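User: Hey, quick favor. My workstation is busy. Could you predict this chain's structure for me?
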Amino acid sequence: MIQQSSRSLKVGVIGSGLAGLAAACTLAARGHRVTLLEKNSWVGGKAAQLQHDGFRFDMGPTILTIPSVLHRIFNEAGKKLDDYMELVCLDPQWRCFFQDNTVLDLVADTEKMKATLKKFSSAANLAEGYERFMSISQQLHSVSDKFFFWKSVGGIIDTMEIGGAFQASVLKDVLSLRMGRSVAGLVRSCVPDERVAQMIDHFTQYVGSSPEASPAVLCGIAHMQTEEGVWYPMGGTRAVPEALLKLAQDIGVEVHTEADVESIRQDGKKIEGLKLKDGRTFAFDAIVSNCDSVRTHRELLEGSSAKQKFDSRRSYEPACSGVVLYLGLSQKYDHLLHHNFVFSRDPHEEFDYIYKRGEPAPDPTAYVCAPAVTEPAVAPEGGEALYVLVHTPYLRENHDWNVMLPKYREVILDKLESTGGMKGIRDRIVSENSLTPEGIHKRYRVLNGAIYGLASHGKFLGAFKPANRSRDLRGLYLAGGAAHPGPGMPMVMMSGWIAGDSVDQDALNGKLVALAI
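Assistant: No problem, here it is.
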């Protein structure tokens, strides 16, 4: 049982993405008075939904992993997740299509996966190498649980308990994080088959960063996924924010939509409240911003010393963006699973274009979600609500996606046909919509259209995002993909929980005093 604060604070939450909803629920469950402010007419941020011509599409995230994070948030309020939504476990978790027309399914069980790999490839010791990689992944996951998750972390010093750096066991764990190695380097030291390595690389795509530039500690994501599984919420991933909204309302959160925040009011040392663009003002004892952490400082704290301190501490690079095609098909493809990856011919070339040249890859990897496999109601009978995501560079000044999209659409559809085996896909399209980096930038107010917040590049510091507890302004807390621990559905909800818990702990410790009326 969580100890509630002896003093109830008045807390404002800016933005109702999954992190904002998680923070609001955690705070209300701890006895605080919470007001949630959302600029759009809907809640849930990127976890929105598109309904068109009888098809239903999840517009943003489609893969739910680590459901224990969701369970923890509901448990805070003494509620059961199962009373709010239905989750279906998917195994195989992914189907992978490669340039040489081979197909490989990722399954959760390591022994079954080893047996599959022995049939898939003649590469020496591939199965044993995969097992070794998963063992390393498990160890990295364990250390992350101990030092990285469920607490506000902005750098390696924050991972330590006081005096912990001098304990031999702690130093051993820190060294095991394989600082200085990249995801791609660690993967290839274990896995001799380039196709299998390419599949494993894409665990890192949950954080929208290049495996060649991201720290090896992110390899722990593989064990997180295989341990708890990949899940589909019936009704689509939109069911997650809807369940969190119902929970928030059940426990007393005050929710305002179409409430666009103009600025955070503060006296230079602590927050005082905020002002909306329609002129309304709110007084708060603490604020959790689910707005992008960089844009929070640049736009909502413009001119403040907190902004200058934030900008001077570190230069943050946006993660990648993407093009999403929402394709209503008259007839589904029976060879697809719910989740699929159609891989590029050369990942090194692909990542070079996206992350170094800043241009769309000429031969990209496409993530393809075919939800009618699990929930036929997403499309008219026999059809499919196909979701196709191709990663692109974050938005540059020279990118005009009104011009670029029609040409890149053809590149993507050609890729689905040639490598994904989706012959005649153009003839099956009866409904179509799209989202580009420019649209993502405007719709969700993320930095330069970055889907996943901030990039995880840097073999030593790449895993660290801005801490959830502001170092520069008392009473300000950060949550979401551009704050610790980073992007992905479970991580942003964990981020919201950490922000809420940090507020509550600061109230318990007397660092925050209830002043707002």
